[in-house]
């Protein structure tokens, strides 16, 4: 694989996200959607999309299977994202999201997706290993498909280390634990993922930050970017802890908020920004995504506006 980009994202379990809105969700009756929207989805794909929107450039590596896989690639082409894909036997998954207008609630249906055999998931590792020139940032994000071993992201982390790249990871469960044991540059857990990784249940933001610092001190990550919902967010390194209270907004959808946060953070770090400046834009991008229904992700004008409302505290 040859072309230049400072950032490459890896999404082993991508999807096409379908979203609509209905007045009320009730059983048996036909629920007629008021809208229909299809977006390319999956953690790393969303990261690449947001980086593109913010004025950066990122390439996306992901598998494609069947008609949905072809649609996924077409949707990314339309957004100007450079794709590097490999073909799998199974059909790329679809997810769907329904906004219930009367109750102001959102329902998220995440489908299991295809199973990858050993030849298929090893093709991803081969694609990554053959990137020339190698990116400075390799962002691996999202769930692992059935058939892919728990240490898949740890194997990618080893490739990144060998090539001198910064490995950024956003996943959960055994896949996160295995990669953290290998050691990565940056992880972006939410509170549930931190609970799984640390086995602890801190009671407040400070205690969560202490738990994140312990991960850094153990060599599991150089930076922990911790998103804490109503408690805000924190950026934890060996030398400092930055905390940002949540921006007071009324959320319409949480889909892709974490991906937008990570995209802005990585893009600004890759651009040479300071950690506080990168963290500020990340918090703004995550909040900007909450403003819109369905699977739209953040808009650059909202990110710019909200960045001025972010308060960064050094703890």
Automatic annotation (TrEMBL):
Q: Which PROSITE patterns match?
A: PFKB_KINASES_1
Q: Which GO terms describe its molecular function?
A: 6-phosphofructokinase activity; ATP binding
- Keyword Kinase found: yes
- Domain Carbohydrate kinase PfkB residue range list: 16-301
Its GO CC terms are: cytosol
Question: What PANTHER family does this protein's entry cite?
Answer: 1-PHOSPHOFRUCTOKINASE-RELATED (PTHR46566), ATP-DEPENDENT 6-PHOSPHOFRUCTOKINASE ISOZYME 2 (PTHR46566:SF2)
The family database entries (NCBIfam families) matched by this protein are listed as: 1-PFK (TIGR03168)
Stated family: Belongs to the carbohydrate kinase PfkB family.
Write down what this protein is called: Phosphofructokinase
Species in which this protein is naturally found: Bradyrhizobium icense
């Amino acid at each position: 694989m040859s072309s230049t980009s400072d950032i490459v994202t890896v999404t082993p379990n991508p999807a096409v996200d379908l979203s609509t809105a209905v007045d009320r969700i009730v059983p048996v009756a036909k629920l007629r959607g008021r809208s229909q929207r299809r977006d390319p989805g999956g953690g790393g794909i969303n990261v690449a999309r947001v980086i593109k929107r913010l004025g950066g450039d990122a390439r996306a590596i992901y598998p494609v299977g069947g008609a949905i896989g072809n649609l996924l690639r077409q949707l990314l082409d339309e957004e100007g994202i450079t794709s590097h894909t490999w073909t799998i036997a199974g059909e790329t998954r679809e997810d769907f999201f329904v906004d219930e207008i009367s109750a102001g609630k959102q329902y998220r249906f995440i489908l299991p997706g295809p199973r990858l055999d050993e030849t298929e998931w090893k093709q991803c590792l081969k694609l990554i290993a053959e990137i020339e020139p190698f990116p400075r940032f390799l962002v691996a994000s999202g769930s692992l498909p059935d058939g892919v071993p728990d240490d898949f992201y740890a194997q990618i982390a080893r490739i990144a280390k060998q090539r001198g790249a910064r490995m950024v990871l956003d996943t959960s469960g055994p896949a996160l634990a295995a990669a953290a044991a290998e050691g990565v540059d940056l992880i972006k857990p939410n509170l549930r993922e931190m609970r799984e990784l640390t086995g602890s249940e801190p009671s407040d933001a400070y205690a969560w930050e202490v738990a994140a610092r312990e991960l850094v001190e153990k060599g599991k990550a150089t930076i922990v970017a911790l998103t804490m919902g109503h408690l805000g967010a924190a950026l934890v390194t060996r030398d400092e802890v930055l905390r940002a209270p949540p921006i007071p907004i009324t959320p319409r959808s949480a889909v892709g908020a974490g991906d937008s946060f990570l995209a802005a953070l990585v893009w600004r770090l890759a651009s040479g920004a300071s950690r506080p400046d990168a963290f500020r834009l990340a918090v703004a991008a995550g909040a900007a995504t909450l403003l819109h229904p369905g699977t739209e992700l953040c808009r650059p004008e909202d990110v710019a506006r909200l960045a001025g409302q972010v308060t960064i505290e050094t703890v």
